[in-house]
Amino acid sequence: MSLFNKPTLKVVVASGNPVKVSAALAGMQKMMPGASIETVSVSVPSGVADQPMTDEETLAGALNRVQNAKEANPLADAWVGIEGGVDYLQGELATFAWVVIQTEDLVGKARSGTFFLPKTVQELVEQGLELGKANDQIFSRINSKQKGGAIGILTDEVLDRKQLYEQAVVLALVPHKNRELYLPETANP
């Protein structure tokens, strides 16, 4: 059954980070404004480095989080994994996140918007520091990854981490909203 046909939903978000939980809920509420959505936060391992350094590793982290959340809390309508990462594009370090939303029979995936990091932040990440800690050090912040994140700092909160992830949540719901296009066997009985 489609998420979009249920008046009440239980959604497990594979993170203890309040920004990720809030983004998952806000994106789902935008797509399903009439539904009552309960979110459950569960901290599970990503199975990748604390700072994923490639697009592929970041997506693998989001997929792993969803699987681990489903194992930890199997009684839900959907499981959401959000993994932030970085990758090089033409020698510059860019950052983004992957969002994965899984139901019993369908997986939706989407990547957030991407932006480039300042060289000072890039250098600290290259030395092995997690992006959030590098931002805290460079910009004299405390726990910025559970607040506006790098994008919030660099835009003076015109766009924050929650908003960046929220749009990717909406995009990851596209297959769920259009099941007949993503599950061909249901379209052609």
From TrEMBL:
Pfam families xrefs: NTPase_I-T
Nucleotide-binding as UniProt keyword: yes
Keyword Ribonucleoprotein included in the entry's annotation: no
InterPro entries, A to Z: ITPase-like_fam (IPR029001), Non_canon_purine_NTPase (IPR002786), NTPase/PRRC1 (IPR026533), YjjX_NTPase (IPR050299)
Any one GO BP annotation for this protein: thiamine metabolic process
Entry superkingdom: Bacteria
Entry keyword set: Hydrolase, Magnesium, Manganese, Metal-binding, Nucleotide metabolism, Nucleotide-binding
Cofactor: how bound: Binds 1 divalent metal cation per subunit; can use either Mg(2+) or Mn(2+).
Cofactor: Mg(2+); Mn(2+)
GO molecular function: ITPase activity; metal ion binding; nucleotide binding
Assigned EC number: 3.6.1.73
Catalytic activity: ITP + H2O = IDP + phosphate + H(+); XTP + H2O = XDP + phosphate + H(+)
Enzyme class of the recorded protein, top EC level: hydrolase
Annotated ranges, domain Non-canonical purine NTP phosphatase/PRRC1: 14-175
Similarity field: Belongs to the YjjX NTPase family.
Function in brief: Phosphatase that hydrolyzes non-canonical purine nucleotides such as XTP and ITP to their respective diphosphate derivatives. Probably excludes non-canonical purines from DNA/RNA precursor pool, thus preventing their incorporation into DNA/RNA and avoiding chromosomal lesions.
Summary of subunit composition and partner proteins: Homodimer.
Protein name, entry field: Probable inosine/xanthosine triphosphatase
Source organism (scientific name): Nibribacter ruber
Record lineage: Bacteria, Pseudomonadati, Bacteroidota, Cytophagia, Cytophagales
